[in-house]
From TrEMBL:
<keyword id="KW-0963">Cytoplasm</keyword>
<feature type="domain" description="Ferritin-like diiron">
    <location>
        <begin position="1"/>
        <end position="145"/>
    </location>
</feature>
<dbReference type="GO" id="GO:0008199">
    <property type="term" value="F:ferric iron binding"/>
</dbReference>
<feature type="binding site">
    <location>
        <position position="127"/>
    </location>
    <ligand>
        <name>Fe cation</name>
    </ligand>
</feature>
<keyword id="KW-0409">Iron storage</keyword>
<dbReference type="InterPro" id="IPR009078">
    <property type="entry name" value="Ferritin-like_SF"/>
</dbReference>
<dbReference type="GO" id="GO:0006879">
    <property type="term" value="P:intracellular iron ion homeostasis"/>
</dbReference>
<dbReference type="GO" id="GO:0016491">
    <property type="term" value="F:oxidoreductase activity"/>
</dbReference>
<comment type="function">
    <text>Iron-storage protein.</text>
</comment>
<keyword id="KW-0560">Oxidoreductase</keyword>
<dbReference type="Pfam" id="PF00210">
    <property type="entry name" value="Ferritin"/>
</dbReference>
<feature type="binding site">
    <location>
        <position position="94"/>
    </location>
    <ligand>
        <name>Fe cation</name>
    </ligand>
</feature>
<comment type="similarity">
    <text>Belongs to the ferritin family. Prokaryotic subfamily.</text>
</comment>
<keyword id="KW-0408">Iron</keyword>
<dbReference type="GO" id="GO:0042802">
    <property type="term" value="F:identical protein binding"/>
</dbReference>
<feature type="binding site">
    <location>
        <position position="17"/>
    </location>
    <ligand>
        <name>Fe cation</name>
    </ligand>
</feature>
<dbReference type="InterPro" id="IPR001519">
    <property type="entry name" value="Ferritin"/>
</dbReference>
Amino acid sequence: MLSRNMQAALNKQIRIEAESSQIYLAMASYSENKGLEGVSQFMYDASDEERQHMLKLFKYVNERGGQAHVSDLVEPAAEFGSIKEMFETLFKHEVFVSQSINDLVHIALEEKDYATHNFLQWYVAEQIEEEAQARTILDKINLIGDDKGGLYLFDNDIKQLNVVSAAAPTV
Ligand SMILES: [Fe+2]
Ligand SMILES: [Fe+2]
């Protein structure tokens, strides 16, 4: 059984994952409008992944006798300045999510909720991968600079990059 405190913290994370999905969907629209097919597909996939992260938490809360909450969401930005700035925003957001997961792990340990602690390890590992992937992408973009031809190649390149897979199978 989840404590009230643990349940509230998990519901907060459900909201963060849902907002992550919305942020990446806005990024998909931004890059699709710029004609960057590979980048937009990457963002659509990332958005789907975040929804899976949200659902995994959602089901866990209900499974443990809590009630998963569907909250309102903050509207994400629609403009990002440039593709480079967009990926910088993505990286910063993933660092924020990692911090939020760390806070959850801390609460689970404080409350001696070892089931939730164990459940959260999947997210800890996932955040390491997502941060690493975002860093790799940023390194590539920094190499390209403002070169249009480079951006075209990058758009093709990113199609090969698989989005870090969530636990749920992608259809
Ligand atoms: Fe996530
Ligand atoms: Fe993420």
